[in-house]
Amino acid sequence: MTRGISAGVFALALLSCQTVVVSPTPTASPTSPPTASPTVPPTPTARPSPSLSARGLSEADAQQAVGAAVREVLAALKNRDSAVIARAAHPTKGVRFTMSSYVRPTDDVTLTAAQLANAFADPTLRRWGTTDGRGDPVVLTFAEYTSQYLYARDFAASSQTAYNRTIGQGNSTDNTAVIYPDAILFEAFDPGPDPAMRDTRWQSLRLLFEREQSRWYLVAVVHAHWTI
Q1: Is the dihedral of CA 84, 85, 86, 87 positive or negative?
Q2: How far apart are alpha carbons 210 and 177 in whole angstroms?
Q3: Where do the domains of the chain lie?
Q4: Among 21, 91, 188, 212, which residue has the least CB neighbours within 10 Å?
């Protein structure tokens, strides 16, 4: 019994003499600074080019867009068909009628589609402008104005026509591109019966069309001619 105790005490004494080595807690290696990613310039976004205005369309494209409407309006003026003109009129702007190349928005007559529906039979007298040179007021019904000025020549049969450019050149400034920048211009030119007097006896009928949603509407009818 004594011998067993002595053995146990000896074992404990031996254990107490051993040095316990505690491994140090591994320290994290210093973190390397993040490598900066190369700056990639943003891909340039192509800017859409500004939409081409109606007046900037080529003659071929302009004719394709409004050619059918032009023929209808010319035929309606020739045949005095008010209903067709009314259907062609812009639904909110109506149609402005100008006696010369220079448009005067505050002075020119503007008729709505409803007013145009029976225009050739309408007895209302309107002041359409003034006579060239003298400046006398031109007060006529729509039918009288059409026959004496607007459609005094057979423009529907004209052999000289153009889209988005003018043919007749005179002393009166053509400001249609300023007043109607988003409209297609059509011109039917008549030089007059005497070729020698072409420069002073020419007349033109100009029609301007603006697009509303998917349809082109008549917004202006200009009677262009040589002026003093």
Answers
A1: positive
A2: 12
A3: 54-225
A4: 21
pLDDT in tens, 186-201: 999 999 888 888 878 8
- Reported as a single tens digit per residue, the pLDDT across 72-115 is 999 999 999 999 999 999 999 999 999 999 999 999 999 999 99
The CA distance from 172 to 175, in Å, is: 9
Class of domain 54-225: alpha beta
Question: Whole-prediction pTM value?
Answer: 0.76
Beta bridge partners of 186: 163, 207
Cα-atom radius of gyration of the chain, to the nearest Å? 43
